[in-house]
Amino acid sequence: QVQLVQSGAEVKKPGASVKVSCKASGYTFTKYYMHWVRQAPGQGLEWMGVINPSGGETSYVQKLQGRVTMTRDTSTSTVYMELSSLRSEDTAVYYCARTVRSYDSFDYWGQGTLVTVSS
Amino acid sequence: EIVLTQSPGTLSLSPGEGATLSCRASQSVSSDYLAWYQQKPGQAPRLLIYGASSRATGIPDRFSGSGSGTDFTLTISRLEPEDFAVYYCQQYGTSPRTFGQGTKLEIK
User: Fold this and answer.
1) Which of A18, A46, A105, A112 sits in a 20 to 30 Å window from A40, CA-based?
2) Nearest by Cα to A36 from A60, A63, A15, A56
3) Residues on chain A touching B98 (C-beta within 8 angstroms)
4) Is B84 near chain A, with CB under 8 Å?
């Protein structure tokens, strides 16, 4: 069965960086795109960007350009999302989510990783 | 960027009743690439509807989606206790992919 298992909660200080992982299993890793979506406490969903695990190509939302980096490790079927220069408004649950094509609905989601930015 | 506006913000209904949730886009959604998700507290969203009207795998037929262009609707025909949650629409035809702000479906 398809599973996306994310790394555990993180607490970071403003200005620091965080790297969240998402390990995929139950399907061919390189045949599906992986997106990252975040949700601030009590708020809605915000798309952050996408990575093609096959070739590593990425596309990021403009507001996070320069601060977000998505990478993958095909040997372990894991994708990573690193966010730098953290600020309090980056406090959120971060989800990875899979699609068949780059422009597609998200059919499987990770369980979410809470990142708290606090001094 | 396509802005999605969902209405109402909160919908109070009783089990057994029908629910109609609306999602309006600021511009036409490409190829009707519109999805609906259900999210319960502490859980990740779950895909209900894709392509505006196709049910995802395992979704009961009391859930249906309709609409095209800029106006879309999620209908739940007979509410079950487990249907009370927050529902989001999402367009995935244009980057950035965007979500509506959500409709909370609560028990009356």
Assistant:
1) A105
2) A60
3) 47
4) no
Type of residue at B40: K
List A9's β-bridge partners, or say none: none
Q: Which CA distances in Å does A82 have to A36, A63, A108?
A: 11, 15, 21
> Within an 8 Å CB–CB cutoff, is residue A109 touching chain B?
yes
Which residues in chain A are closer than 8 Å to B92, comparing Cβ atoms?
99, 103-105
CA-CA-CA-CA torsion for B20, B24, B29, B32, nearest 10 degrees? 10
pLDDT in tens, B50-70: 999 999 999 999 999 999 999
Q: Which residue of A has its CA nearest to B98?
A: A47
How far, in Å, are A41, A71, A107, B88 from residue B48 at the CA level?
Answer: 23, 29, 9, 10
With contacts defined as CB-CB under 8 Å, which chain B residues touch A100? none
Touching check for A27 and chain B: CB below 8 Å? no
| Predicted local distance difference test score (pLDDT) of residue B43 | 98
Q: Tell me the pLDDT tens digit for each residue of A8-45.
A: 999 999 999 999 999 999 999 999 999 999 999 999 99
Asked whether the beta carbons of residue A45 and residue B33 sit closer than 8 angstroms, the reply is no
Between CA A106 and CA A109 the distance in angstroms is: 7
Q: State the average pLDDT for chain B.
A: 97
